[in-house]
Specification:
Elements (H helix, E strand, L loop, with lengths): L25 E6 L15 H10 L4 E3 L5 E3 L2 E6 L5 E6 L13 H12 L17 H5 L10 E5 L2 E5 L7 H4 L10 H7 L15 E7 L3 E6 L13 E6 L3 H9 L5 E2 L7 H8 L3 E14 L10 H10 L2 H8 L5 E2 L23 H14 L8 E8 L2 H14 L4 E8 L1 H10 L5 E7 L5 H5 L16 H12 L3 H17 L3 E13 L3 E2 L15 E2 L2
Parallel strand pairs: 1-10, 1-11, 14-15, 14-16
Antiparallel strand pairs: 2-3, 4-5, 5-7, 6-7, 8-9, 9-10, 11-17, 12-16, 12-17, 13-17, 18-19
Helix pairs in contact: 8-10, 14-15
């Protein structure tokens, strides 16, 4: 039985392929997971969190349909000559959905909540450029020392640890959205309950039926409300991609936020312009558990797994060429960065398998001591097919794979705990176009470091890159950091992902972009 979080009525369905919905100004989106919270400080960090919270909240900076960065709550900003201080001027007409003004103190409180170690925010590291942020998040400094202050209601000042030229792009992420301080002070963490919540984005939540859908309506107090044509947006949990395709073809969904890459040729033939496949800064990989007691803590085992993984076969045979194989974490095309490569993967399959067998023998595995590994993935048919293929590739090495799957939120919670897997499916989609956003997930203190990779050399290079004042020096340090991690076989990259969406041709305002983020405020349903 569904858990109804509000008694408001109105499940909206549509009736035919690409048909106009019964309520023409309501956009219906299929998302492949349910947000764990409407509080950015408490989400699990998945794409669908951005889909929903990105429509409900607006940060200092926002995104255009094509992915360009635009003024959001901030009307303008400027940095000091040394780049260590940034001043954001808030627009006069920014309001919460209860009519209260959005003020600088709302951002101060938001940033402190994210970095408060009690909240264990998965996105906390994105705010590490702020002065004392890392120390606060590790419990080594007081929240009051964070480099954020409200000069007055309309002026926010950020003080940084080092020069961070990409800071405005960070401010467009959901983690940098404000919180309504007047409600947080009254309700604490319960401020996001539907009876209490207010938002400052184009939409506000009306109803949430757990494991089914979230309904939102237009926020009349949004500063650009006059230009928002939609009356609301509904987000339908659609983990099964075949079900999502069926609902899209039936006209029940205007947008489906993913499709099975294996079906791309068929989809293109049958749905034409509704099929959107676009280059994206994203990497699909397997985390390799390096915690004590796991066979994958041995570098030789991790190298063997990487050597035997035939990424070209996975891409060409399973995913029909809809993505590109990779042996790196940072995708090709990332700005101001030269693509790196994992050592030893440029030889023939036969040479790689021979080397892999030698490594496993050195590690003590063989016919008398077979290696069994647990591979965990979130339940979805394409993840299952890839896991089956990978297991078959490792089988000739004498490796037995035990497969375990769970729905997305459970899967990532288990991955974060770091115990019940040796190999874990994961992916990273760029929050912003910078190599540090990918490499950061391998830092020792990052909660997204599912494999528990720890390298003093890697951490030092990342720290030096963060402190670098020259762009060329910073790029070189980041590239060295990735080479360190790839040489340690810290993970098993599989492919550089592409943004896959099904989009009703009867709408405008949707544009493909490199970070695959799409704000519904720009969308218009055509009649």
């Amino acid at each position: 039985m569904n858990n109804i979080r509000s008694l408001a009525s109105g499940l909206v369905l549509t009736v035919s392929l690409f048909a106009t919905p019964l309520y023409a100004d309501t956009l219906n989106i299929g998302i492949y997971g349910e947000p764990s919270s409407l509080d950015a400080a408490r989400v699990n960090g998945a794409v669908y969190d951005n889909d929903v919270l990105g429509d409900l909240f607006e940060g200092l900076v926002t995104l255009a349909p094509d992915g360009r960065y635009l003024p959001g709550v901030a009307s303008e900003w400027a940095s000091s000559e040394d780049g260590l201080s940034w001043t954001f001027t808030l627009r006069d007409d920014a309001k919460w959905s209860d009519g209260q003004p959005v003020v600088a103190e709302d951002f101060v409180l938001a940033f402190r909540r994210v970095l408060n170690p009690k909240n264990a925010s998965v996105y906390a590291n994105l705010l590490y450029p702020l002065k004392n942020a890392a120390a606060i998040n590790k419990g080594e400094a007081d929240l009051s020392t964070l480099g954020v202050s409200a000069k007055d209601d309309h002026t926010l000042v950020l003080t940084l640890e080092g020069n961070t030229p990409y800071l405005p792009t960070l401010m467009a992420h959901i983690i940098a959205a404000p919180v309504p301080s007047h409600l947080v002070k009254q309700y604490g963490n319960d401020w996001t309950e539907l009876d209490h919540i207010v938002t400052n984005g184009a939409f506000m939540p009306k109803r949430w039926i757990s494991h089914d859908h979230i309904e939102t309506v237009k926020n009349p107090y949004f500063h650009d409300a006059d230009k928002v044509t939609l009356d609301g947006v509904n987000y339908y949990l659609t983990e099964d991609l075949s079900t999502g395709l069926s609902r899209f073809r039936a006209g029940e969904l205007d947008v489906m936020r993913d499709f099975d890459a294996q079906r791309y040729p068929w989809l293109k033939d049958h749905l034409g312009d509704a099929v959107h496949l676009h280059n994206q800064l994203a990497t699909y990989y397997y985390a390799l558990n390096q915690r004590e007691g796991h066979p994958t803590a041995d570098k030789r085992v991790r190298e063997a797994l990487n050597l035997a993984l035939r990424r070209d076969v996975i891409v060409d045979k399973i995913l029909q060429g809809a993505v590109a194989p990779t042996n790196a974490l940072v995708p090709t095309g990332t700005s101001h960065y030269e693509a790196q490569t994992m050592p030893g993967l440029d030889t023939t399959v036969e040479e790689r398998m021979k080397k892999a067998r030698e490594l496993l023998k050195e590690a003590g595995y063989g016919p008398d001591h077979p290696l069994t590994l647990k591979l965990r993935y979130n339940t979805r048919d394409d993840h299952r097919r890839i896991a089956v293929a990978a297991a078959a590739m490792w089988k000739p090495l004498g490796i037995n794979i035990e497969q375990v799957n769970a729905e997305a939120n459970v899967h990532y919670a288990e991955m974060a705990r770091g115990n019940d897997f040796d190999i874990g499916r994961a992916s990273w989609v760029a929050d912003f176009d910078d190599a540090s956003n990918f490499l950061g997930i391998l830092q020792s203190d990052n909660v997204k470091n599912y494999g528990g990779y720890h390298s003093e050399a890697f951490d030092r290079l990342m720290a030096e890159a963060s402190a670098a004042t020259h762009d060329g020096q910073r790029q070189q340090l980041l590239e060295q950091a990735e080479q360190q991690a790839l040489g340690d076989y810290a993970l098993a990259p599989v492919y550089s992902d592409a943004a896959r969406n099904l989009v009703n041709p009867g709408l405008s305002g949707w544009e493909d972009n490199a970070i695959n983020r799409h704000l519904s405020r720009w969308v218009t349903l055509l009649h």
